[in-house]
Amino acid sequence: MLTQINGLHHVTSLASGAQENNNFFTKVLGLRRVKKTVNFDAPEVYHLYYGNETGAPGTVMTYFPFPGARRGRPGAGEVAVTAFAIPKGSRDWWADHLVTHGVQGIDKQETLGQARLRFDGPDGDGFALVETEDDRTPWTGNGIDADHAIRGFHSTQMRLADSGATSELLRFMGYQQQDTQGDITRFALASGNGANVIDIETLPNAPKAVEGAGSVHHVAFSVTDRAAQDDVRKALLDTGHQVTPVIDRDYFWAIYFRTPGGVLFEVATDEPGFDRDEDVSTLGQALRLPSQHTHLRSVLESNYLEPIHD
């Protein structure tokens, strides 16, 4: 069993527009945009990162906004819900806040003993806010006070046709089965960075998900450094998983592999962090380009990347 996994690192999804995406995460959810860069493989598309003050592992939601992208079709083989941690007693405040901002799909729930607020993102993304005792320091710079502000991720909920092999993978990654409710089984790390929970919803008859705007592209797990990542990669390869070579993503090092249930997993290092090329006080303000794309700046800014107004 692996011992290097610290919890979630980030979750990356697809969107249909950069401005709407930015407004939702900064003005509605109150997160900080900690990086404005581009997709390494499609530099004409932004890669936007939102999190706490520094973009600490376990707090960061990231997006590839493809202008005008068609919405995905929900189904099996995907992350269906990304959940954030909020303080105890703050769910009703958030429900009113989301209504004020015209957010759709709002539903108060009690899931596995926790008060939960389900809602939709701009592209039909599945989100939830979960009341927890969480001492992580929130970002309050976008107007949501510390008594209510998001602390970081609580969990992701995968929707699978068959959960058996993925459950075994999670156990191998250090997660232990914690609880069940209906079709949902919860796995959790005994300790970690606070973003320690993975839920699996098993729906054998669900159609296969079709990726599009609003879909989660991949979910990333945190390891401290490259040495820990190398150990994880070797262990995954030894157990038969097809794992990519280590890829430099500027702000972390990444490896990827497809899970038995169809969800793409990444293992990302906590180093070097989002302040490697910007001061913490100005994170996310300027467009940062990977070195291989710096020569494209004028073309990208003039012809492809819509201005984002804060």
UniProtKB/TrEMBL annotation:
Pfam families tied to this protein: Glyoxalase (PF00903)
Domain (VOC): residue spans on this chain: 7-132, 152-270
* Gene3D superfamilies named among the record's database cross-references: 2,3-Dihydroxybiphenyl 1,2-Dioxygenase, domain 1
Q: Which SUPFAM superfamilies match?
A: Glyoxalase/Bleomycin resistance protein/Dihydroxybiphenyl dioxygenase
Q: What is this protein called?
A: VOC family protein
